[in-house]
Structures are given as structure tokens and as C-alpha cells.
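Notes from hallway chat w/ T.B., transcribed later so I don't forget. T.B. wanted the structure written out for a chain they're using in a teaching module, and asked if we could keep both sequence and C-alpha cells in one place. Agreed to drop them here.
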Amino acid sequence: MTQPINTLPAIALRGTTILPEMIVHFDISRERSIKAVEAAMLRRQEIFLVTQKDPETENPGISDLYRVGTIAYIKQVVKLPHDLLRVLVEGRERAELLSLVQEETFLEAEISGSTQEGAQYADTVREAMYRGIHGLFHQYCMESGKVSRELAAQIMNIENLEELMTQISVNISLTWQNKQKLLEAATLEERYEVLGGILQNEIEVFKVGQDLQKKLKLRVDKNQREYILREQLKLIREELGEESVSDMADEYGKKLEQLDAPAEVKEKLTKEISRYRSMSGSSAESPVLGTYIETLLALPWNSRSEDSDDLAEAWKILEEGHYGLKEVKERIMEFLSVRKLTKGGKSPILCLVGPPGTGKTSIAKSVAEALHKKYVRICLGGVRDEAEIRGHRRTYVGAMPGRITAALQQAGVSNPLMLLDEIDKTGSDHRGDTASALLEVLDPEQNSRFNDHYVEVPQDLSEVLFIATANDIQEIPRPLLDRMEVLEISGYTENEKEHIAKDHLIPKQMEVNGLPKGSLSIQTPALRKIINLYTKEAGVRSLERKIAQICRRAAREIMENGQDKVKVTTKNLDKFLGKSRYSYMMANKKDEIGIARGLAWTQVGGDTLQIEVNVMPGKGELALTGQLGDVMKESAQAGISFIRSIADQYKIGPEFFQENDIHVHIPEGAVPKDGPSAGITMATAMLSAIIKKPVRADVAMTGEITLRGRVLPIGGLKEKLLAARYAKIKEVLVPAENRVDVEELDQEILDGLKISFVDTMTDVLHRALSK
């Protein structure tokens, strides 16, 4: 008997099939499904639930849906976070999907309901079906154990065949595909065959599972047998005199007796050795514990090296190893002097900050040599895992001590010189903050009891001389910087680079490249040309590479042409190094309107910065180009505001700033530029362009400007003045508050430069603009 055609809102279910008489809840998130529920609630709370063939299909059409679904009654709707709806439904009856009336707002299906009548089957057939399905369900319950006794008894007491099959379908664990097969079974006989096949298959699966379980048990028993055999093998090895756990424990005990360590360390080791002795050799924990004991025995708890207190020898080593660096050398000599007077004392924590190639790492080696200390280096560049510093806890697989403990083990003494290289390049992520882990290491008040997670016993780091290196002090976290004494290493002058090349780099590279002494000579003018035109850096790393290149070319000429000596001059330098790569932006030949020369600090030294300004008819806009950062943009805004505030002094009418555009440009636009030191340069160039008065070509300036025209101090003065010298600048305008910095500079840097100190923009304009 076929029911009349009906139209109901529909939901396409993904990976779920609802059967009649099932009460179940499911979550929906698709907008069409939510609107279908809303439409059903406004009607009779009836909805058609049909399963889509591919759960991954996002917007299914009629071809993507099965043709048989279930008419269900919505009992409850609950709103959940993230635009989810939880719907509780009760399956009422099967129905066939005929078509989709609408698909845009929500799915609305035209369906035809159907019922199966059992009277068409003879009583004997129905009885046979009942007994068959009843027996299969009973066997299913016995084999699987997934249905509770109470529920199983309740279902098996049902006498009606249709009701029995319905309750079995609803209450056993089925995949949505099997549920769909049951739903599509049109007649009682088809439902019996599908359900019987499913139960029979599940019973077979459980039987196979039990067989596998028996085989697994046999394998476990085999493992037990192997364990007994291994124990017997161990006894045989002991009888043969081979090494065993007991022997290793005895060896550890002898090492412990000879170990010079604090009482708590010895107590910890005694306990761990005792535990190791009682452990089976085949135990997985045995090698882990053995490694831990060996690590503790290898650490230099009370082992110290004798530091040198010969001040004369120390000064000689520092002077021979490095040219210049007066401040660093004097600080090391102060440390030695205090240590000699106090017979010990806490070691300082020094941080050498400077551009790459200025010799920060090699200074640490020279200091270790001067003090007769063991030297170990820890590179922190890119380290993000806190466990790299503090160590891994022993509960983790592959645990190991942190880098500090490993460095102590490598040094073999408790008072080495430990170099923390690239401390400004540490990072942090979900594994912890490396810089925060270093706080305990570098705090003199805490590092006497440093706790490594792997070692689990406090270590004394107070006698370790820590020296850190960094390129940029701004990248070091403030709390970490607060625990260190900063020594700034500025870039080298041309004269210093020349001395370093002659005394250190050329002899070193000749030895590295196998050149005999006297077989290569580089004339001083050629060396200066290499420094100025082939390298552009604060340090000497690129200079050393160029010298190495010359040495390799010289070695080839000696071997190929049989020359005894190779001489490098300014004339044949191109033959060794090719054409020059760099040139400093020299001072302009004549005074020009709207062009001012500034000075900039970079990570590889100082440089000059030419600022160009044009004024053109327009709408009063300020254009800034040349890859300027936010700080420099703010400096330009402050400069134009200052100029407008003093416009009356230069007879600039108020309408000028409404009728003209000002364009500020810094050449080399592809290079990002930022920093608080170009304010007075931009203001000078802008005023020059507005009043049509040239800026002196032989003047360079550095300093920040305020809205009231004050000149603020800047940093990186040494590098900036060196850049001015290379560019042949005659006069440099420096903020008056930087007078102390200038007085601390060597006369070699100031030779040929006139330093003029300025307090306000009035002073700047008076000196910078042509008379």
C-alpha cells in the first residue's frame, strides 16, 4: 500500500543514516541544513533525513543522495557555539525521495512514504524468519559482548518479527552503509536477508578476532620463554667472565670513590648506582640510567684550572692578538688586577657588541689564552628550544643535558671561559623562551646553583667566565641585557684595517695557502685600495677573503709560471681581484639647492645619505620616497612642521604650503632606511628647496629634530664620522649632547674633520646653508 506524495524540508546527512524508531541527535553546520530545520519547526516538526553518497560533497544535489531516507520528528533543537545546531530526532517511517522541489535556500524534498505488510507471508515462513534472526542475534550477543544482558533479554522476548528486526537494527553497532542497506530493503524478506547477512558477518569477524587473540597469547608466552632463556644466557656469560650489569656498577662505584664532588652529588650517584645494580641487563631503562650515571661522573664538579695572574704576559698576549680595542683590553686587565688582589672573586659577565667581522669571537680566544683558561664556545644563533639550555628531563626518549652542561663536560674544569656566541639571535616559540632560560645562567646571584633538567643536581657556574657576543644590542631582551656588562666594539678605521691586514691577515692567509715567507708582497697603496674599493664593512671579514683570493692567485702563478715572488700593486690589482665593487658617495662638487648630506649607521658600518627635495606647484602634499621607515617619515613630518612655524623669518607666505607640493627622496630606493638621526638633514634640505638657498656640499650632519627645532643626540657616531672621512666631507654637524662621545674618539678618526656642535636648527641652518 503506497502512501500519498508529501513535501517536507530535507537534510542531507554526511556519514550518518537514521532508521525508523531510532532516537538520535546529530550536529549540523551547513546553512541550508539549518534553514531546513527552521522551516520544519514552523510546520509539523517533521523533516526528511536522507544520506548523501559521498560525505565530502559540500552542496549535494539529487544525484548525490540515496533514494530512500527516513521521515523524522524533531524533538529538540539546541544552539551550540561556532554556528552549530544540535538536533534530537525520532525516526518515524521510511520514505522514497522522488525529487527536490527547491535547493537554493534549503533542500525541500518530494517524497513517497511506504509500509510493508507481513500478512502476505505464510505463518511457517514468518516463524522460520523469526527463529533465524532470533538465533543469529543470540549468537551475536554471545560472541561480541557488545549488548548488555538486560537489553539482549528484552529484545529476545519480542515475539513480533517486524518489531524484533527493527529493535535489533536500532540497538547493534552498524556502519552507516549497512544502515542504508537496511533502510533500502523494501520488503520484509529483503530486510531479513540484509540484517541476517550483517549479523552473520559480524559473528565471523568476532570469531577471527578470537583466533588472533589466541595467537597473540601464544606469542606472549613465547616472549616469556625467551626472557627465561635470556636470563640463562646472562648466567652463562657471568660464568664465562663476560661483563655484566653488576660489573658496570662496580666500575661506576670505583669512579665515584675517586670523584671530587659535593656531598649531594655523591649521594645522588650512590643511589642511582644502587638502582642500576639491581636492574636487569635486558631492561630498556638500563642503558638510559647507565648514560645518566656516566654523565654525572664526567662533569667537573670541583675540578679547576689554575688561572694566570701574570699581568705583563696577559697584556702582551692581548696586544699581539688584536690591534686597537683599547676599552676591551683595559677591562680584561682590570678583571685580572681585581682577581689578583682578592685571590678569587666573582667572574664578570661581558657582552661584546659590534658589527660582524670586528673580532668579537677571536677576542674571547685571546682572553682565554691570556688567563690560561679552558675555552669552550656555544653558538646560540637560531636556538629556540629552552631545553637546549636547561637540558631535557630524563622521562623523555633521547634526553640529554643542555648546552651549558655539555660545554662544562667538554672543558673538563668548572672554571672555563665560556663564549655565548650570537646571543642576540636566540628565539622563542611553543618550546619555550631561550633568552629567559639564560637569565639563570648569567645572573651572578643565581648561577651558583644552576639546575639542569637532565642532571637534576645543582651546578656551580659562578666561577665560569662568560663572554657573550652580539651584533645588535637592540635585539637582546632587556632582562638579559641587564645582567651583562656591555663593551661596544665599533668599526675599524682605514688605518686600523691596514695594520690588521699587515700584522695578522696577510701572514695568516699566506700560511693557509702554502705560500713561503717573502713570496708575496702587497704594496701599501694596493692594500688601501682593497680596503676602500673592494670591501665595505665595519670589520675585516671581507678584507680577509680578498687577501685569501690574492694568495690563491699568487699560488697559481708560482706553480704555473715558476715565479719566485709575486708583487701586488695598484696597477695589477685588477688582475687579482677584478674590477672594484664599491665606491663611497663622495661629497658633491658644488653647493646645490634642496640637497643635503646625512650620515647613517648600518650593521656593517657607517654610510652617507644624500637627501633630495623638490618643490612643485600642487595642493600642499608631502611625498616621501626611497623605502623610508616609520621613524624617518615622522622625522620628515616634524621637519616640515618646524619650517612652517618659522616661515615668517624667511618671508614664506602661508599660502605657499597650500599651493605647493614637497617631495623628499633618498636615492637607492630599494634599500630600506630607518632610524632617528636624519631629522635635521631632511629639515635643512626642505628649507633649502623652499627658500631657494643652496646647502654647502662639504657639510654633512646627523641628529634628530623636535617640533620646536631642538637637536637631539644620536648613536653610532664613530661609524658615521668614518663614513664622512671616506666621502671627503670637511665639516660634520653633531648634536651638542654628543660632545662626550666625540671626546672619547681617537684623534686618528677626527683628523681632517671639523666637528661643529649644534643645539638647535638655527645653528644647523647657520652652518649648512651657503652664505
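Follow-up for T.B.: The radius of gyration is 43 Å. Might be a good example for the class.
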